[in-house]
Each structure stands twice: as C-alpha cells, then as structure tokens.
Design brief:
Elements: H1 8-17, H2 22-46, H3 55-112
C-alpha cells in the first residue's frame, strides 16, 4: 500500500522562516501530522480495498454481460424460427382448408347443374 510522506523538518523550517518560534513551528507540525494521519485513517476505513472496482473487475463484468446478451440473442433467434415455422404451418393448413372448401363448393355447384 502507498504511504504518505511528509518532510517535518522542511515544514518546521518554513514555519520558522515565516516568523514563528521553534516551539510554535513544532506544535503546528505535530498537529498537521495528526490531522493528516486522521484523514488517511478515515479514508482507509471508509474506502476499503474490498469495495474498490478495478478495470479487471469491470472487464470481467462486461464480458459476462456480453455472454448473457449473446445467450438471449440466440434464444430469441430460436424462438423467432419456431414461431415462423408454426406460422407457416398455420398458413399452409388454412390454405389447404380453403382449397378444400372451394373445391367442395364447386363440385356441389357442378353437380346441381
């Protein structure tokens, strides 16, 4: 895990150059370190590594979703093919029925003449 580096000597030196006494500069540096450490601990606690999503995780999820979509597409194609075949059977059946009825009516009409 990455660590946060902080040069306390440089921080104290900058504060002293700004006109603070050594005791004041050291106190401010100590408080700054404590505040920084508290923020780092808070972030670690609130954002644990277990809840982070990496590109690898996203790629795996995308691949999984693509496979599911492809499965649904193949099932849909199969269903469409089955529906098409059933529709053709119905149309052919109705066509044969119509031809039979028309033929029977024509034969009946011819027989009456």
């Amino acid at each position: 895990m990455a660590t946060l580096t902080f040069d306390t000597h440089e921080f104290v030196t900058e504060l002293k150059q700004a006109g603070l006494t050594e005791i004041q500069a050291e106190a401010i540096t100590k408080l700054h370190q404590q505040a920084t450490n508290a923020v780092v601990e808070f972030v670690k606690h609130e954002h644990s590594l277990e809840t982070l999503v990496t590109n690898k995780d996203l790629d795996a999820r995308i691949k999984e979703t693509e496979l599911k979509i492809e499965l649904v597409r193949s099932e849909l194609r199969r269903d469409i093919a089955e529906t098409k075949a059933e529709l053709i059977r119905w149309v052919v059946g109705v066509g044969i029925l119509q031809i039979t009825i028309i033929t029977a009516l024509l034969l009946k009409l011819i027989g009456k003449l």
